[in-house]
Structure formats: structure tokens, C-alpha cells
Amino acid sequence: MIPRLKPHLDYREFAAMLRLGGPAVEAFEQAFASKFGVGHAIAFPYGRSALLAYLSASGLRDREIVMPAYTCSVVAHAVVLSGNRPRFVDIELPEYNMDLGLVEAALNERTGAVISTHLFGYPLDVHRLREIVRAAEARFGTRIAIIQDCAHSFEARSDGRSVGRAGDVAFYGLNISKMITSIFGGMLTTDDSVAAQQLRAFRDANFRPASLAKQVMRPAYLLAAHMAFSRPAYRFVYWLQESSGLLDGLTKAYHLDDEIHLPPDHLDLMLPVDARVGMVQLSKYDEIVARRRRAASMYDSLLRDRLPWELPRLLDGATYSHYVIRVPDRATVMQEMARRGIQLGQLIEYSMPHLPAYRRYAGDEDFPMALECSRMTINLPVHASLRDRDIARIAACLVEVAAGK
Ligand SMILES: *Cc1c(COP(=O)(O)O)cnc(C)c1O
Question: What is the pTM of this model?
Fold first, then answer.
């Protein structure tokens, strides 16, 4: 069975984990900064921890943090747990990012920051965002930070410029469902040396070394993930997953529940084994993105005008962390594709202001686009280990399912 996602691993990640000695985390931070052409990179156990640390270290509290209504729930969790309030803004199609007209209307004297998410790897227009934020700062006489959520975009480009460098800071997620992985992990980058120093000091004062048990389990987790996502095993894994939920910890990176919370180890320092794996993955980044772009352009040429549904836009600067289509009857399409040996994803299947835990942050606004997308999106596999003939088969099956055959 073709899995909906798959980390791009080989013997090199496993060999790297066995290596000993050396400041692995610092080396990974430096390599990350130099790979993405940014002054400083600071490692965290999760992307959400990086966001939480930044908000706390920069003294933002009791402020409104403007963010998309359609995004990963952990971002809002970090905002609330930092003592701030999310101010949701509806998204705009076809690119799934915040409607900048609504961002402008949402800014006020209580705004502390804007989280600029580049969902599914589509760059938000960061130039226009910056103009809107600067105008609001002048109007309200306050300072508003711009935080780039690069969990899906890494170095996606807007106007030829990397989105990661277009704000005060950027953060990245590095778990096994992301474009490159350090098993778990997150990173924050900035060109501001003072902010970097402040954040590093905050992290070193508030984060602690991971438990020995966690260190020991890490290689086993990566090996289990590697095997679980392999083709022959995946049919069994899929069946187990559908029928028991036993493997949720491995295959579902996010658990949707009604609680606003962060994992118990969210204040751990990044592990050296994680950093060693991340280092190997960093060297594969260009290949991984190139293959995702190739998959997206193949889908486009195989599916355009052959489906009754709307395809995503082909864009040079996008990284295609996900190739997303909207369909009216998601469950049936997913089921029919699974019958043909292809698993589709349904990211993101919720709208933040419609989640019970977040309804009180929604005010009396409507978020029609976020709600529509939460019900209709499916994503096709685009992982780097797909061969051209897999992509052709996925496309052919989808055309068949769309025709009701
Ligand atoms: C994955 C993700 C994050 C953060 O990831 P962590 O799991 O905390 O490392 C942030 N934003 C988006 C859009 C994501 O998909």
C-alpha cells in the first residue's frame, strides 16, 4: 500500500545515531542556519516549543496573537499557554493562507504578534503582510512581531525571497511527518542577534535535558517508523490503524482532542540523536523538495481537466509539503482509494475557531473558508520515495474514483 506520508530515511540516519561525542545539537543548529541562509538557529524539542519560548522570552503576555483559523492546532495551544489569546483570521483560496484584508481588520492596540503561516508550502505574500503590520504599528504606536510558521514551507519563496527571513523569527517542525525530520524536534531561526541571544538564554534557563529513557527509546522509535511506513508492511499497519488505533502514536503526529495542552516533554532540550538524524536530513533537503515539486507538477499534468474538483495552483516558490484537493465527499474518496492500495491524508480536518476548546476565542465572527476546507480537503502522497509510476497510478485511480467507477 502507498502510505500518505513517509519519512525519507536510509542507512545514513541510522548510522548517524550510533555516532558518539561532539556537540551534535550546536552542529545541527549551525548547519540549519547556513542551509537556509539565516543568522541564527536555535533547537527545540518541537516547533510549538520554539513558538512558546519566543512568545515568553520576548515578554508577550495578555496580547492578541493574530493567526490563521485553518492551521495546526498545536500553534494555538502554544499561543494560549504562553498567556496570550489567539485572534483567528479566515483563510483565502486557492492558497489556504490568511486573507490579508482580514488581517488588516484584525490588528488593534492589543495585537502582540502575527503568525504568518505558509500552509502546505504555499508562500503567503510576506511583503504585503509587512506593509500592513508596519502601518498598524504606526497607527497604534505599538510594536507587532511577525512570526513565520515555516513548518510546511521551510525556504518557500515569495517574490524570490525566502519566507523564513521575512519576519522577526521563523519556526519549523521536524517530526517524522514533516519535510525533513530529526525524529521529533523543532527549530527557530532569526537574523536578529539580540533576539537570538535572549532566546538561547531563555531556553537554557527553562528547558532541561531529556530523560535517559527517552534517549534510549529514540532509535527504536525511528526504526519502528521506518519499518511501519515501508510498502509491504503498510497494508498491515493501515489495517491495524483503522481497526484498533494501536499505532496512533506512530502514524498520527497529532491527536485531536478538546484540550489545550502541550506534551509533557515540551520543555526538554533537543536530544543529540535527534540532531544527528536532522543533520543527515538537512543534506537531503534539496532532493526532497525537488521530488515534491516534481510530484506536484506530474499530478497537475495528469489531473488538470480530468477531475471535477479543484486542483492546487502550481507555483515556483511553493514546497508542496502537501498536495491538496477539495472534494465534496471526502470519506468515500478516501475509502475508494484505500481499496485501490493508496492512502490519502485529510490534513487539516478541523477549523480552529470551530473546535470546542477555541470557540470562546472566535467572538461572533464566521470563518466560512476554514470550515469548508476542514470538511473537504484531501492530500495526495508526495513523499520523496514515490516513483513516477506510483504518481501515475495514484492519478489514474483518482480519475477513476471521480468518475464513480
Ligand atoms: C507541524 C506544524 C507545526 C509545529 O510542529 P510541532 O509538532 O510542534 O513540531 C506548526 N505549524 C504547522 C502548520 C504544522 O503543521
Answer: 0.96
